[in-house]
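Write out the 3D structure for:
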Amino acid sequence: MVSDEIKNFGILGWPVGHSLSPKMYLAEFKFSGYPNYNYIAIPVQSGRLMLAVEGLRGLNFRGANVTIPHKSTVIKFLDAVDSDAMIIGAVNTIVNDGGMLTGYNTDVTGFLKALAEINFMPDDCNAVILGAGGAARAVLWGLCKRKAAYITIGARNFQKAKTLADDFLVYGNIEAMDWLSEEFNESLKSADIIINTTPLGMYPNVDEMPPIDLKLLPESALVYDIIYTPAKTKLLQTAEELGYSTLNGLSMLILQGQEAYRLFTGELPNLEVMREVLETELHLR
């Protein structure tokens, strides 16, 4: 059944022209029978974020996604924030219910669902996170929610990693380390999963990777890189050559989008439609 109702959505960011969200959501809206649902990229400079958020309310946008650099700053302009987003300290989805703007973070859901798709359960695992930025916070919270036994945060900036670990110590057994230290190398030897949350290896810098010795990992370890451009980073290529199972960030991207779509519409989208659009745009099919 095709709906003639008009609803507007968008994504706030700076820059935002590269975002694949408009094509992904518009394809799904059309497939699901909502040809009058609109989704646009909205470039918003940092100093104008409050005006942009009020614009969502004033123009009766049903919802919006939020990307860099606004995920943390946007929180103070919202009426309510979901518990996941509050703990992570970042919002990537806003839902407008009659002028009431509520913020959510769907990255944590996308991260955990991507693992579930390949039947990796992080419960009681030993996990290593590479990096201590915004993406690491969502991954860390996902591991804490699933009661990972021990989590090591390895980063170039030890103090930044320690600050992140301290923020989450109440939720799990977490330790920060310099990823060049011998102590960190020892942590790799018992890791069930290692997750790269840094931009090292992302297009166009495809020859980069975090400076770690993958050969120290147990044979059964999973190497997970949340980067999806390219589909196979140098880290994942190296891991595959050594015989490790790998996972890139495309499923996380799609599944966090699925959760945002559910929040926007109350329905689950067709994942194959979303995947086809993204893989086409990323030249993966």
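The chain has a mean pLDDT of 96.
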